[in-house]
Amino acid sequence: MRIMAIDYGDRHTGIALSDLTGTIAGEAFVIDDWNSERLADRIAAEAKERGVSTIVLGYPLNMDGSAGPRAEKSLELRELIKERAGLEPVMWDERRTTVDAHRIISENGRHGKRRKQIVDAVAATLILEGYLNKNQGIM
Question: How many structural domains does the chain have?
């Protein structure tokens, strides 16, 4: 029942995985790839290798709730993942996750290059935690 959350970016995509029970967030990492087809292949391979049963894909809506160009790109990635992984990603409203990720990283004294390397993984973890909390009735 492992769950994978994705914070999709143009060059860097954050991935966060739950524990085996789908209860808490565990490992997080970044896949560096600008090509959405290769990225979908990598996500599908990671999902299969790690026994993922649910994929949660960040859906970057505008602050007014409308869908812009980034949201459209996420919907396109959703179709590629569905095709390659055989799992239909759950779309998750990710407004403010990147802002919150930067805040968390700053509060923990990370700056410069190291910050850029981990912000997407932290944002993916926030997406995963939000999804897990909602499914556990915490929110």
Answer: 1
Q: What CATH number does residue 98 fall under?
A: 3.30.420.140
Give residue-wise pLDDT tens across range 22-67: 999 999 999 999 999 999 999 999 999 999 999 999 999 988 888 8
pLDDT of 139 above 60: no
CA gap 89, 59 in Å, rounded: 11
How far is 9 from 34, CA to CA, in rounded Å? 8
Is residue 71 within 8 A of residue 65, CB to CB? The reply is no
Three-class secondary structure of residue 29 per DSSP: strand
> Can you give the pLDDT at residue 84?
98
Range of the domain at 71: 2-135
39 phi/psi in degrees, rounded to 5: -60, -45
What lies within 8 Å, CB to CB, of 80 at 6+ separation is 36, 37, 39, 40
Angstrom distance (rounded) from CA 110 to CA 71: 29
Query: Which pLDDT does position 137 carry in this prediction?
Result: 66
